[in-house]
Amino acid sequence: MITASQLRAARALLNIDQKTLAEMAGVSLPTIQRMEASQGNVRGVVDSLMKVINALSRAGVELLSEHVRSDDGGRGVRFRHPDTLLGRPN
What 3-state DSSP class applies to 44? Predict the structure, then answer.
């Protein structure tokens, strides 16, 4: 599951606004706004959530859930490849 904070952080990492993420994911702007306004885990239609997660993944962002290996543990976001921006190598 992804948290609202992770979603905002992923968007910030890509330096995109909510409208751009909505377009990338093929969902409405209000859908992104509702997801980011969630308390804790993002709430919404599973299909819409998967579209957003897949769009972020295509853009090169890796979402870390609770028990995924990372140096410091916990949740977070990171680029899969540091030289990736919006899914295109620099």
Answer: coil
Mark 34-54 as b/e (b = at least 16 C-beta within 10 Å). bbeeeeeebeeeeebbebbbe
8: Cβ–Cβ under 8 A, 6 or more apart, which residues?
Answer: 36
The predicted-structure confidence for 5-21, as pLDDT tens digits, reads as follows: 889 999 998 999 999 99
Distance in angstroms (rounded) separating the CA atoms of residues 28 and 21: 9
Report CA Rg, the chain.
Answer: 12
- Neighbouring residues of 74: CB distance < 8 A, sequence distance ≥ 6: 64, 66
